[in-house]
Amino acid sequence: MSSTTIQMENNPAFARIPPWVKAKLRPIALEKIQQVYNWVENECIPAERIYKAQLTGDRWKTPAIIHDLRKKAKAQGLWNLFLPNHFVESPGLTNLEYSCCAEIMGRVYWAAQTMNCHAPETGNIELLAKYCTPEQKKRWLHPLMNGDMSSAYSMTEPNVASSDATQIGISMEITDKEVIINGRKLYGNCQYNPEMQLFILMGCSDPNNPNPWNRHTTLVVPANTPGLKQVRNLTIMGYDWAPEGHGEYLYENVRVPKENIILGPGRAFEIAQGRLGPGRIHHCMRLIGQAERAYELALIRCSDPHKKPREKLIGEFDSNIERIADMRMTIDAMRLVVLNAADTMDLHGNKAGRFAIAQSKIMVPNALLKVIDEAMQMYGGQGLTQHTPLPEIWTYARFVRVADGPDAAHRHQVGREQMKTANGFRERAEGYAKRYRELCQKWGVEVEEFVGII
What is the pLDDT of residues 208-256, one digit of tens each? Predict the structure, then answer.
């Protein structure tokens, strides 16, 4: 496919992309967006029921159709598209350009997996690419990028408030040759799936360090390490999310080589921040696509000639016309929030973009939960069953409110940052008051004193 032949006007692959974003898309991005659109529309959406049927045979084995699609996607160059272009391993897209691809991927929950662009792989691959030594990359990064295995990120714990990551307490005793690990973890992908072969684990290696931000270490734990046991699968809103799922884990004297430490002892927070920024935004990118799918299903229901209460199409009722309008405007507004965050990361880096990232993480899941809920409502009782993908889409949106940190923590972060600007606004207000008094004197107007500054 020649990117020079791709026309964005009236092309459904580019229909929802705002003009200011289209102006920034390079030829490579135009080509990949079109490819991803064709892939999801022609290979993924029609195969949703095949995936479900194959999964019933073995809940913890990746369906054969996924392996087949991964081979095809890789051959077409639809592989690892998420890795930003400042990495040598990157296929070359910016965060903004990838956002346009990720939204399309989000139309089917597992579509990103067919392109090796799914969580937690995206965050883990970026972490390994950013912080690992060449030898560590050879052992872990390259197999993950090649799709030879999958991985898990293990941070959350059951017995502490993990939203304050300084409380993470799983014990890591670092000796001359190895690290000995004891404790419990939640949410790492399920060990039941044999493709899941390594955990990236954050734990407490120096509990007495006076600086709480230097107490923790990140390292790689092979999934088959003796002493590491999956206690159970954790269901999410009643779904097991097989074949990847989420697990509860017990570490009992788990021993790994010291060279499995990433970056160095005590540097876990530096690593976590580097990982979570892009990961948080990837969830939101895909969620826009999920919401678009729910919106389309709502339109289909509204125009179904077999569903005519009181001899009217569902979409002919004023209340539903207004629902559709609100859904459309909400999705478009949330897309702008996500694209702004992606562009900010491209222009100024992940650290500088943390406000926009947090803004996305707070606003997008909350807003789109309402959109998906309205679509479910239009389907009535069927909207709560497996007759449509809506219940799973809604559950994913609800999960994203917690994934990579609860939105309450992000709101607190945003609020703290904004409070730092208060003194500047006070000084500005005092300047207004001073200038007001000068103008009163100039024009002979009596000064009116206020209780506040102005």
Answer: 999 999 999 999 999 999 999 999 999 999 999 999 999 999 999 999 9
Per-residue CA distances from 38 to 35, 44, 46, 136, 250 (Å): 5, 9, 12, 36, 43
Whole-number Cα distances in Å, 399 to 90, 343, 358: 29, 25, 16
CA distances to 118, 182, 204, 228, 229 from 174, in Å: 32, 12, 10, 17, 21
The helix (run of H) or strand (run of E) holding residue 244 is none
Q: How far is CA 420 from CA 57, 75, 349, 400, 427, in A?
A: 56, 50, 21, 28, 13
d(CA 30, CA 15): 13
Contacts of 254 (CB under 8 A, 6+ apart): 180, 181, 182, 221, 225, 226, 227, 228
**Is the pLDDT reported for residue 312 higher than 70?**
yes
Could you read off the pLDDT of 112-149 as tens digits, one per residue? 999 999 999 999 999 999 999 999 999 999 999 999 99
Is 126 within 8 Å of 310 (Cβ atoms)? no
Task: Say how many residues make up the chain.
Answer: 454
Which two three-digit tokens encode residue 293?
């799918």
Backbone angles phi, psi at 244, to 5 degrees: -95, -50
Q: What is the DSSP string of 9-37?
A: TT-GGGTTS-HHHHTT--HHHHHHHHHHH
Structure confidence at residue 5 (pLDDT): 61
DSSP 236: B
Handedness of CA 251, 235, 287, 333 (dihedral sign): negative
Task: Please give the structure tokens belonging to residue 220.
Answer: 């790689």
- Distance between CA atoms of residues 441 and 87, nearest Å: 62
- Tell me if 260 sits within 8 A of 220, measured CB to CB: yes
Residue 170 near residue 185, CB atoms below 8 Å = yes
Domains of the chain: 3-146 (1.10.540.10), 150-262 (2.40.110.10), 270-419 (1.20.140.10), 425-454 (no CATH)
Nearest-10 crossing angle of helices 354-378, 407-419? 140
Q: Is 202 helix (H, G, I), strand (E, B) or coil?
A: strand
For residue 31, give both structure tokens. 């080509």
Beta bridge partners of 67: none
* Per-residue DSSP letter, 239: B
Ramachandran class of 174: left when φ > 0, alpha when ψ lies in -120 to 50, beta otherwise: beta
Dist CA 371 CA 376 (whole Å): 9
**405 vs 32, 68, 87, 425, CA distance in Å?**
31, 34, 26, 30
Helix, strand, or coil (residue 171): strand
Would you state the pLDDT for residue 2? 47
Burial class (CB in 10 A: 0-12, 13-18, 19+), 214: middle
